Amino acid sequence: MKKWLIYDYVNEQGVNEIAAWARKYLQKKERTKLNSKLNMIAENGPDLPGLLLKTEVEYIYKIKVQGNPKLRPMICHGPFKEIDDETGEECETITLLVGAKEISWDFEPRGADIEAGIRRQIILRDRKRRVKHERIN
Amino acid sequence: MSELTETIRQELKDKETRYIYDDDLLNTYIATQIKTLREQRGWTQQRLAEEAGMKQTRISVLEDVNYSSWTAKVLRRLAQAFDLRLTIKFEEFNSFFKDFEGVKPELLARRSFNDDPAFKDTPKPAKQGKPTVTKAVQTGLHVIETENPRASQLDFPFAQRARFDVIAGTGTGQADIKPGEQTSGTLALSQPQMALVAAGGK
């Protein structure tokens, strides 16, 4: 069965921005809800109905995680396929680009979708600017 | 067991985690299956809404993996619209993984009653070779049912001088068995069709 691999954006200093965001801003319950969505994507792909929503930025989607606050981490498909260490098969990927919440129809941090678009471009130029997703419990 | 499955197995040991994961799985499963069943039938959301007596906007909401306010009553209406049965069961947590790995359209599709082969009445496949006594209706009466290829032979395992009746099918043969004839022996079918033969007592 086709698997999906998940990656996190890392900054110039090599810091995993997604893991840092989850540690700093999310409570255990929120991290668990996010992990549940990421589990679903890894096992069944991102096309589950209502799981991803388009943003105003091309190629950038937000994962819809129900709750209060509303988690809306920004992702893109790919932008590269990768070989799965477990199976040796080429797999589709998604990349978590910006950790974000949605409060009163605005993103926190503000412009998270735009920043995600910029980060995607950075990854396209340098594929070392993403690492395998670090799970934060 | 995959790395992800093992990770989840460990995480499910925490009570709060397992209820969050399971709630999310249930909502995801239901929303994805409703969408899959609708698309399997080539229906729009509007068509499903009409079949189920709901509004299209309601169907749209039900097809969202984050929606959690569905009720058994609503699911029952959808089941009837799809001509499927609805099951609601309590399960052990070890069944989590099967459902988790099964949220895929190819695994969620279900046939409506009219397309369910279990309810199709199809003719029995032809039996080959020698017939067997399939039923002893009562003492002294045997029934042989077969569909033999042309000219194959039936060996009657009955007592001598029994009475044979070809109830259905076409039979001729060495013993000249015909309906009502008092004899025993073998029967060669002249046509590859079923012969139902009853043999009564002396």
Describe the structure.
The complex is a heterodimer of chains A (137) and B (202). Chain A is of the alpha+beta class. Chain A has one domain. Helix content of chain A is 29%, strand content 28%. Chain A has three helices and ten strands; from the N terminus they run E-H-H-E-E-E-E-E-E-E-E-H-E. Chain A has helices at residues 17-25, 28-44, 112-125; strands at residues 4-9, 52-54, 61-63, 70-71, 74-77, 82-83, 90-98, 101-103, 106-108, 130-132. In chain A, a hairpin with a 6-residue loop joins strand 2 and strand 3. The mean pLDDT of chain A is 95. Chain B has two domains: 3-119, lambda repressor-like DNA-binding domains (434 Repressor (Amino-terminal Domain), Orthogonal Bundle); 132-200, Sandwich (Jelly Rolls). In chain B, helix 3 packs across helix 4. Chain B has a four-stranded antiparallel sheet, with no helix packed on it. Chain B has a three-stranded antiparallel sheet with strand order 3-6-5, with no helix packed on it. Chain B has helices at residues 3-11, 15-40, 45-52, 56-62, 72-82, 96-100, 105-108, and strands at 132-138, 141-147, 153-155, 163-168, 171-172, 186-189, 194-200. The longest helix of chain B is centred in the N-terminal third of the chain and has 26 residues, at 15-40. Chain B is globular and about 50 Å long. Chain B is of the alpha+beta class and 202 residues long. The A-B interface holds A 1, 3, 28-29, 32-33, 35-37, 39-40, 42-44, 48-51, 64-66, 86, 135, 137 and B 2-4, 7-8, 11, 16-17, 20-21, 24-25, 28, 31-32, 35, 63-68, 100-101, 103-104.
